[in-house]
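This entry is retained here.
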Amino acid sequence: MTIDSKYALVASPTEEAQTAEAALRERHSFADMADAEAAIVLGGDGFMLQTLHQMLSERRILPVFGMNLGTVGFLMNEWRPDGLEERLSKAKSFTVMPLRMDAVTVEGETVSSPAINEVSLLRETRQTAKLEVMAGDNVVIEELVCDGVIVATPAGSTAYNLSARGPILPMGSNMVALTPISPFRPRRWRGAILPDNTRIAFRVLEPLKRPVSAVADQREVRDVATVEVRLDASLALTLMFDPEHALDERIAREQFIV
């Protein structure tokens, strides 16, 4: 298939991405998003996450080939306007399973949101958070005193999770990382790696005195009382990469960067 019969083109509002979009539209015709079978995304990792979340919310999930016109571009391929049709035909696809966050606020409101990279619980004030942590049906930590805690997917393990000294998870490992942020008690606990089908739940202790927010990628819910995180296989996403720039190899290489 030619590009115009299959792919939609979306771009970040930044000047660089808009210029790149114009250059590609001069060379190719693209399908409307409503009719496309896949999408080309121009921008950085943040815009890629924004685009994927829009697909999840609309329940119209397309394979996505990103080209980096942002900063890090971990979820993106290199920006090259030449040879695009050949690159698309040779691209390697990866399935990314998002998490689902179900948060209940202290006022009783329930908020659900998918998370492609991670779900984070973060203290809202200068006082540390106090959290009860459950894995499966068991309370594994009765009181975690910390600045916060992260549940990260393999795709997100090299992002916020890594900066908090969490482990890098290979693609296809079927694991999630549970990583504390500045833990004070238990002092020696540095996190865990759990099967991705594990139900992970948190109960905020002293939620009025020590308020906590929950963040699913870019969506924040403030003043939470409980948060449950689990894999949502019904929302599988497909990311496409150049064979020499594939996501699994990039994540593996991150383990050797010092």
